[in-house]
Design a protein that fits this description.
The chain is of the alpha/beta class and 330 residues long. The chain is built from 9 helices and 15 strands. The strands form 3 sheets. Strands 3, 4, 5, 6, 7, 14 and 15 form a 7-stranded mixed sheet that branches. A 6-stranded parallel sheet has the order 10-9-8-11-12-13, sandwiched between helices. The structure holds NADPH dihydro-nicotinamide-adenine-dinucleotide phosphate.
Length: 330
């Protein structure tokens, strides 16, 4: 079996030398255990934080150890009554081709015509993040204006589509014209390409002269500053991520216009999706219906082969993905 271990901690942008593909062997399965062949694995921006040796909401990855992350796989051998051969499971045991487990922290996937990869994306953690940020943090209302950054990614593309379903006017920011066209095809009227805009704040004003009621923050830095300039009184900012800063080697200065928080009486709230996981069944029921009816589209960017996982991960910071970035294992 094969696995990917963390060789060294990245300084700044991660590189391929930070990772090694290694061979491992597995013991025979014991009573109460089963063997999983991973079919899909996820790469996510939060993994960059786990590569830094520091205290956070989740423990850092250990050097020389196999990495972890969301994965979906198929049971190919079993001595466990609740996990039969042929069933599909989701786990945090990504970055490896196979593994043996007793089933703790494993979820059986429902029988569905959907590809198991969607349980890593629109029906999984990123989709749940978009739903949580809009419903439980920002409490977006019909008729309001929503601004979403990193809007064509796993979380952002769901946040845009849910915003439209909730009756909001959606303004989005992305890093390429191609991504902008994809979002427009989904019904997002105003999309800014932040890479070809020299004044993001002015571009946001032009896209939403009525002002922003809710900002779904995925990027930080200049995006946060531009949003603060354009927020309406009593606006809400759901702080989901700040990907523009994850590879910084020195602390990033804050926006110079933070005083708008007072003047505009803003509510700014950070959140971690796992604290809201008790609401997953409610989310999954709604999302399942939206996917089945075609009201939500599940876009993915697929890299093939475990050895491509480091490339896929690095690609997140280079804007290589549209929709959820996933790795298809052999
Ligand atoms: P994405 O699928 O959005 O992938 C990352 C995207 O971010 C890239 O495609 C790129 O798109 C954009 N990006 C990368 N670097 C920059 C930069 N310097 N400036 C602006 N945009 C950049 O990832 P996810 O949807 O998985 O995650 C989105 C955000 O949500 C991240 O900040 C992540 O940490 C956060 N998150 C938070 C969770 C929580 O519980 N709080 C849970 C899950 C995710 P482009 O081409 O448009 O630049």
């Amino acid at each position: 079996v094969q696995q990917i271990v963390l060789n060294s901690r990245p300084e700044g942008m991660p590189s391929l030398t930070n990772f090694s593909l290694t061979d491992a062997s597995l013991a025979p399965i014991k009573a109460g255990e089963f063997l999983v062949k991973n079919l899909w694995m996820s790469v996510d921006p939060y993994m960059r934080g786990r590569m830094i040796d520091r205290k956070s909401y989740i423990a850092p990855f250990a050097l020389g150890e196999v990495l972890e992350g969301g994965a979906t796989g198929e049971i190919i051998e079993s001595n466990h009554a609740d996990f039969p051969v042929g069933a599909k499971v989701s786990s945090m045991n990504g970055w490896r081709s196979h593994y043996i487990t007793d089933g703790s922290d494993h979820t059986l996937l429902p029988e569905t015509p959907l590809c198991p990869s969607h349980f890593l994306g629109v029906l999984g953690m990123p989709g749940m993040t978009a739903w949580t940020g809009l419903n439980r943090i920002a409490e977006l209302k019909e008729g309001e204006t929503l601004f979403v950054s990193a809007a064509s990614g796993a979380v952002g593309s769901v946040a845009c589509q849910l915003g439209l379903l909730m009756g909001a006017k959606v303004v989005a920011s992305v890093g390429s014209d191609e991504k902008a066209e994809t979002l427009k095809a989904m019904g997002v009227e105003q999309v800014i390409n932040y890479k070809t805009t020299d004044n993001l704040s002015a571009a946001l004003l032009a896209a939403a002269p009525q002002g922003i009621d809710v900002y779904f923050e995925n990027v930080g830095g200049e995006h946060l500053s531009a949003a603060l300039d354009n927020m309406n009184d009593h606006g809400r900012i759901a702080v989901c991520g700040m990907i523009s800063q994850y590879n910084d080697t020195i602390p990033t200065p804050g926006p110079s216009n933070l005083a708008y928080i007072i003047m505009k009486k803003l509510k700014i709230e950070g959140f971690i999706v796992f604290e809201h996981w008790a609401h997953y069944p409610e989310f999954a029921k709604q999302m399942g219906q939206w996917l089945a009816s075609g009201q939500v589209k599940a876009e993915q960017t697929i890299y093939e082969g475990l050895e491509q996982a480091p490339n896929a991960f690095i690609g997140l910071f280079e804007g290589k993905n549209s929709g959820k970035m996933v790795v298809k294992l052999a």
